[in-house]
Design goal:
alpha/beta, Aminopeptidase, Alpha-Beta Plaits, 2 domains, eight-stranded mixed sheet, four-stranded antiparallel sheet, 15 helices, about 20% strand, globular
Length: about 475
């Protein structure tokens, strides 16, 4: 009966959390500036009796909300940062709220809110039934910058967890049995000598030349890296004017690979290219690592547990109006994009627009996919279970305006509530260690990691890039 009561609690509170998710969607904030979303969640959880610990990892928007005492300690991860340039109305036609403004094209307005929804219902059930243990919600900033959880992990706030659960908005309901790639983000800064580009170019030493030489070298490197590696860059400073030889230029790189070791090796090779470019252009170079997340380590025991809760909860249901909105949204997407089906999409019946069933793809366990996330850091510290749920039509890619539209719609809200139910039900079983599930998850993790000791991929001397003067309102408890 307890699980039925938990579902009733979640259903009764659904509208409250739909409003929270929409409020965060309406006020999108990019990484390290999420003061509204963070304070909104802190205030609600503080009023509901959670202990709030703020400014985790020297990040004002990072926080922990905790209820209960003793073991086991079960965590739920939340995020709330938006993406630049993805502002969009809830409309199947491109219509930004603010031109070039930020938007929730990855659904983090839903991601964090589902976590708050889940822990609040759990807290109430723990109180009413006297269930021992501790639950924690982690308000995590800047996932899109692939570093928020790394700064938190560096402070050790995940170290005492028995396990952690999370989810991500998607276009299908499934366990995340795949692994995401490790990543290093590093910016290179070249210094040269300025000169008049027309009258005396021979007196200058162009920092931009160094950047371009480095990029050429990196592009040749692509042929000689392990399959699945990624080398991506953005010129962050290319000088001020074409008639001035630039004495300052910079380029920002993302390096991805199957695991932390592979990415570290890729960085060593890229560093040699940067140093060679500096030598060729008679400039100097420095660098700063800004992100360093691990590949994700899926936990089959926890993912199977979450799949079982989906079966208990039942399938999602969508209305004819939601199906119509989904089809109209898909009509705005290029046919080549729609044709590039993912493995899970290929398993859907032809014509499926909003999947309602739940997949547990055993054959995908550990298979590496192209994206990266700082949840990888947490997955190497404690056992982690993760699911995805249908929050957008099948064929919509995250990091697009179509995704922003879907994640602000009733489709996104339904997927969010579904995820909250699955996480809450799973955490309930973990608190009670039903059928030894927590022991199995921890045993699997120990076998996978073989005594591995986590070390953050961002050096200790690097501080979070928090904007000067950023403050988060103290929760009014």
């Amino acid at each position: 009966m307890s699980k039925s009561v938990l579902l009733q609690m979640l259903s009764a509170d659904a509208e409250r959390f739909a409003r929270m998710a929409k409020d965060i969607w309406d006020r999108p904030e990019v990484g390290y500036t999420e003061s509204f979303a963070s304070s909104l969640q802190q205030e609600l959880l503080g009023k509901e009796g959670f202990r709030i610990l703020t400014s985790i990892g020297e990040v004002p928007t990072a926080f922990i909300a905790e209820f209960g005492t003793g073991s086991p300690i079960i965590g739920i991860l939340g995020e709330f940062d938006a993406l630049p340039g993805l502002s969009q109305q809830v409309s199947p036609i491109y219509d930004p709220v603010v031109a070039d403004g930020p938007g929730h094209g990855c659904g983090h307005n839903l991601l964090g809110t589902a976590g708050v929804e889940a822990v609040l219902a759990l807290k109430r059930l723990m109180e009413s039934e006297g269930i021992p243990g501790t639950i924690r919600y982690y308000g995590c900033p800047a996932e899109e910058l692939l570093s928020g959880k790394t700064f938190m992990a560096r402070e050790g706030v995940f170290d005492d967890l028995d396990c952690v659960l999370t989810w991500h908005p998607g276009s299908v309901n499934m366990t995340a049995n795949h692994s995401m790639q490790a990543l290093t983000g590093v910016e290179f800064f070249f210094s040269g000598r300025t000169a008049h580009a027309g009258a005396a170019p021979h007196l200058g030493r162009s920092a931009l030349d160094a950047v371009e030489l480095m990029n050429v070298g990196a592009n040749y490197l692509r042929e000689h890296v392990p399959d699945g590696s990624r080398i991506q860059y953005q010129i962050t400073n290319g000088g001020q004017a074409p008639n001035i030889v630039p004495d300052r230029a910079s380029v920002y790189y993302f390096l991805r690979g199957k695991d932390r070791k592979a990415v570290d090796h890729l960085f060593e090779r890229l560093l040699k290219i940067a140093q060679g470019a500096a030598m060729m252009s008679e400039t100097s170079v420095t660098w700063k690592i800004t992100a360093g997340c691990y590949d994700t380590l899926p936990n089959a025991a926890l993912n199977d547990l979450m799949h079982a809760q989906a079966e208990f909860t039942g399938p999602l249901e969508f209305t004819p109006d939601e199906e119509d909105f989904a089809r109209r949204l898909l009509s705005s997407i290029h046919s080549d994009v729609l044709a590039a089906k993912s493995m899970e999409a290929s398993l859907m019946p032809e014509g499926t627009v909003l999947p309602t069933g739940f997949l547990n793809l055993k054959q995908a366990f550990g298979v590496s996919v192209g994206g990266s996330s700082d949840i990888g850091d947490v997955s190497w510290i404690t056992p982690m279970g993760q699911i995805m749920t249908t929050c957008s039509p099948l064929g919509v890619q995250v990091h697009t305006w179509q995704a922003t539209a879907a994640f602000g719609s009733s489709i996104g809200m339904k997927g969010m509530h579904y995820a909250a139910k699955i996480m809450a039900l799973s955490a309930y079983d973990l608190l009670l260690n039903t059928d030894g599930i927590l022991d199995r998850a921890k045993g699997e993790f120990a076998e996978q990691t073989q005594g591995f000791a986590f070390k953050a991929g961002i050096p200790d001397e690097v501080k979070p890039p928090v904007p000067a003067g950023l403050q988060v309102a103290v929760p009014r408890i």
